[in-house]
């Protein structure tokens, strides 16, 4: 439509932040929009900030009823929220021919006109949550195009900029994020995605030149979201469509940044005589950064980047300031780095990633609030080593040493630092050498390149699905580091999160329709780095090793020994409750320590190996709620996510169960225990307290952890907890059956012990049949696949030791039913496939031993209804009850008959000839 009267445009802020709306006005009010009137509106109710899809739908529900009362007052509408907001399309459906433009759609459309067949566009945004949100928005927008343009999208980089940042902090963050975005050299268009980033385009240009070189860096074009939106809307109002002449007004390239914009951008930028504050900011920034007469400092020369100074009087450059170091000018040209080894070399040779992102070394010098200040085990680019009491250094020698407020003594073995966590715990902190830093950054770049540009989406997947039930990483710390740059993490920790996150690739709306990267190569690279990490260990290496060992197809025993040794080097096996470290770090250390303890004990059980951890050298306090920083308020709203509170309780109760399993292994499965006398009286006496502890543990499970307690469209990992319980029960009964030889046991005792064992297998079979998709698709603990196989092995033991054909036939049929249940469930649960293969192999052994009977059982396609288990007569109070671990009436748990009846077995004179006590009433 061609306007003949003044055009009225309503600029809409769909959240309730009026301060954000105020930032629109100076940026738009003085544009050269002839015959146009701009009005601004802030939604009075709804979310104050939009970070998720749920926030967008909530704000839409608040905005639409109010906007419908105003649609006759305006000719066009600009939705000023940088996201794929449903408000745009919904409002368009109500206003008819009046145009509605979203600044997100407009900036992406503008970027697509600038990319070539070989180049891409990327988005620079504010907070880390927007990386996934904007990636999903671009996917939705581009998939609606007639031509295939998804390949032109190069990803999103979060800067972490906030309104509270100083100019220097904001500039550093913007430049670091831009480095990450353009490092692969394929991006030639950057969309500014966040209203508070307006006015910072000059820093983006400067970072591009530093990363790509002056010539190539100046070719990168920057698209401002608000200008793209307002010019697109103006073009639609005046012409009905966007012409090429309108595109020229939308795009901002080089240093010709919005000459019609006479505003004052954020961070107190001053204007020059021309009245153009943005150009003044660009010119002053460029002049300040190019201090004449200075050659590059040693750090910048080594990394082959421009040596930038924030002002004429600055002593240290931007890079050295961000790393808390001083500029030096003593070294010559950097020597050629030694060749990288193995997979990292191959990856980087094919497309080398530029190593130019400044990375902090000491978090105590980090500007602004951060969880990482005063940390002991999470410092960047340095390792810590616990000093044991019998080593060549004694705490008594530290009494008169000069420790500072952080507990550091700088005069010991420079450049290493002695740090005192408490009076009895000391660590040697060793900074990484420049060569080690270069190697680690190269490995980080190799890891990132293997998954680029999907790293943020994989991190989001991991924390949505795995982390709630396996909370060994501090989510906020990880995201804080990753939000600044992935180079602040360690390659082992980062790579492991990517590997396990990729297991749930199909649960990401962003990734599900895209090809998955080759995670086998990444896993191989991370494994190699893990086994090389012992020389300078970090807690993140232990975390990465634990995460990697949760892969269902990883044989983790050798890795377990390596991780346990690193754990001891880091002092994770020691009580840290009185250490001078942040509270959040105490929680991390305890959670990681208990995760290592579980890995060791369950690995010893399922692999049949001796445990690495002795309880005499384990001094970690039990976990409590305060050790977990997240609550139900931190639940992710996206479907297919796991629940934080349920996951926390699952982890805590798994630790408690593991303590029982540790004692069970020590009692029955060590080499010394296997050499002990194995008559049934001794075994039953030793088994009784363990059986009672297992019963008590199960009776105290909260109702929220019952198998039947699932939430719609939520994944639940409680299955691995219940499976672990059945595995513990069966492991105990295997020890009892081992002592129940025909020549050493009374027939009545044999009946009771075998019936109890059979009931255990039947309960495990019922558990497998009750598994829902919410369980099968969730995170399963590493031992789950072998635990399922052990249940089948237990059934095989019952078959092999049966005393008559009827009993053998019963258990053979039930084993076939169990195998069938796992087979039909394994199509949606890869962790079950090992157990199915193991049962198939076991079937061949049964066939060889029992011939036709086993063959017929193995050939069952769909087992018929199983015959009832022959149970021993129970006491009257429990005669009609059957074991149901998820029964609603858990208060009556003690009355349910499922244990070996130790009280009635006590009527036997085990040390005599199994004589019957005539005072007994019967079994």
TrEMBL record:
Family classification: Belongs to the HyuE racemase family.
Record protein name field: Zn(2)-C6 fungal-type domain-containing protein
Any Gene Ontology biological process: DNA-templated transcription
GO cellular component: nucleus
Species, as recorded: Venturia inaequalis
Listed PROSITE patterns: ZN2_CY6_FUNGAL_1 (PS00463), ZN2_CY6_FUNGAL_2 (PS50048)
Coiled-coil residue spans: none
Keyword Endoplasmic reticulum listed: no
Residues in Zn(2)-C6 fungal-type domain copies: 296-329
Key words of the record: Metal-binding, Nucleus
Gene Ontology molecular function, alphabetical: amino-acid racemase activity; DNA binding; DNA-binding transcription factor activity, RNA polymerase II-specific; zinc ion binding
